[in-house]
Amino acid sequence: MKTKQHFLGIILLLVFVIAQTGSVLGQANSGKLIIKGTTIDSATNTKLAFVTVKLNDDKGETIRAGISKEDGSFSLSMLAPSTYHIVIVTLGYAPKTFLLNLHKDTDLGLIALKQQVNSLKEVAITGSRPIIKQKADRIIYDLQADPESKSNSVLGMMHKIPYITLDGQENILLKGNSSFKVLINGRPSPSMENNLNAILKSMPASTIQRIEVITIPPSKYDGEGLAGIINIITVKKLNNGYSGSLNANESFPVGGPGAGGSFTAKSGKFVIAAFGGASVANTPKTTFTNSRETFGSNATSLLQTGDRRSNNKTAYFGTEMSYEIDSLHLLSGQFNLNGSRATDHMAQVSSLDGTNGPLQSYDLLNNNKGTSYGWDAAVNYQIGFKTVKNRLLTFSYQYADNRNNRNGDVTITNPINFNTPDYTQTDIQKFNEHTFQVDFVTPVKKVNIEAGVKGILRSSNSNFGYNSFNNATGQFDADAALSNQYTNKQNVFSAYNSYQVNLKSWNINAGVRVEGTVIRADFISTATVADQNYFNILPSIAVSKNFSDQTALNFGFSQRIRRPGINRLNPYIDRSNPNFELTGNPNLRPVLLNDVQAGFSSNKKLSLNLGLDYSFMNNLDLQVADFDPATQVTRTSYANTGKSSSFGSNLSVSYPVCKIYNVSLNGNVMYLWLQGIADGEIVHNDRLMYSFSLSNGLRFNKGWAVNADLNVVSRNPTGLQGYSNSFVSTAFSMNKELIKNKLGFAARVNNPFTGYRNNITRIFGPDFNQLYNSRDYYRSFGISLNYKFGGLNDGVNKSRRSIENNDVAN
């Protein structure tokens, strides 16, 4: 009770500080003068829309800018008396510059612009824009500067980004950790995060501008995501008009057709940006083996062999909109929608042997169907202040809703000493979330101060059932003992305060975040309740030093938290394989990570980024597998049983060997110390983890480009008691620009020298060893067509602060 009162006091105090800061730091109005005019074509007197009008000071710095409307008129208000250099520019016309001594409201009248008629020979740009940039708290990867993005998906490009690797199942790991958060354009999308891998696999990389890896998230972000945040930017900050891109692609024998695109447009004070796409991911029939050896007085050997095939259809859509009410008030919002439908067919032969011969056998046919769909919407109201530039107060609200349904039909044939009848499993999950947030930002000399309060109200529900076939009635009867209804309500209340200092060569970002969590879990069918309350104080600091020789040093410290999400808490038991069960743990508690980082970067001809990282965790929630010799079932669940520490390094190098050839290397090396308790005994899973991605790019004349990639990934832990095998992959791609800066064609082949790969996972315990080996397709081919259209001159207006829910791990 005291903790709740203490936390409420902190929030009330911070609200008071925010309110008082606005009044204490206020200044007098700087001016109310107006400049207006109309832009026209000098030859035809036609009104010119979307012309940029800038007001520069004596140093050439732009202090105000505007755009002419469709009738050619423009107006700049709230100006102080001064001398301004007026610069008027637009595409296809010669720029116009003149001096104005402003001391009263001024109408410039008709401003005639002359068309540029000079013809220039085509100029070849030999320099290239940097693909990777490093800041104090993040790494930025420019996908548009990488030609390979024209033929790949966003998921397929992830291995080239510093700190990121993909494991054997194409799961994303950030600094070797599966706990991280994903933002779209700096904002959360719970509906997309719920189906992340499928969406990123279907999203063409050519529709994405850049990806930011935030390794030391500032205090304004929620504390969740142990390894950090991946921010995917789809919107390019350009000017008036419209701009967009379209992509159509096909991959085989694994994969299928797909299409995606992005679009940005501005009309007056209204701006809209959207992206979307759809794809089919088809995996033809592959084979697998699953074996388990148990020890002790009654040693057994289980062997399962079979085949499976799957199909997944995914579609997604996202949009951002803004309306500039006036120069001080901005209304913005976002809406995201996605859905998927997956089917999986598996046939399996299972036999269990003891020391004296066969004990049990059966054949199994399993048909699984799953649907997932979700949407989220947010609105932000931003208020500026006349007295202080860049002082902002933002009110935000977001609602998110997700639905997931799983249905499995299991048919048993040829049973020997196996009495389980045919059965079906269903799990209906519902999730919704309300978020309220207030943010305040103000500059004080060279310091930028940020503060805010936030409340998240979540509700998760799972209704899972198990139905056994009744031979007497010929129907499936519900089994109450294996069914349940589960409700989880989680409320998170937080407040933050941070300070940014930008000096000549130093950049410092420091802050603290306080978070209080209240959880209530109800098991409706069994009438039991589980409650949890916890309070966390999470500091963060990032410091960078820039040198005159284009090098920089950075270091930082942060604490992060991982709250278990519905997938880890849900007590639904997946019995798709009768000898192996998978379930969640509603009693899981959060995990706290301490992380220390240091880095060096050089932006010379040899581009170099080097990072060091040390982190440690206690009370770590891990997947734990226990074998029950009475039932011959291995059950895997989650438990706060482990602790870990890791020390690692990241290296990213890029070098232009010559005019047409560029080589780059992205590598990660980390040693992990991991231990926990399984079946009452201490288990260690220490190992060296590494990954390397070598990329070779050749750029020829007439729009031709060729890329060759080599990827090496080591064994990776799959929990306290498991690890996956290492692998090597290769990829070759070709791009051809058919219409300059408009239309391009790309082709890609993955692993041309290897048709299949054995994807192996080993799991061990005090009394058993298990090995799962899936023979997966490895060689694949893909083609894509990319089209860019339109022209823009101004960016999408966004509120400087908005809701960023990134505090739950699944």
From TrEMBL:
Residues 389-787 form the Outer membrane protein beta-barrel domain. It is found in: Cell outer membrane. One of its GO terms (cellular component) is cell outer membrane. Its main location: membrane. InterPro entries: Beta-barrel_TonB_sf (IPR036942), CarboxyPept-like_regulatory (IPR008969), OMP_b-brl_3 (IPR041700), Plug_dom_sf (IPR037066). Keywords: Cell outer membrane, Membrane, Receptor. It comes from the Bacteria. This is TonB-dependent receptor.
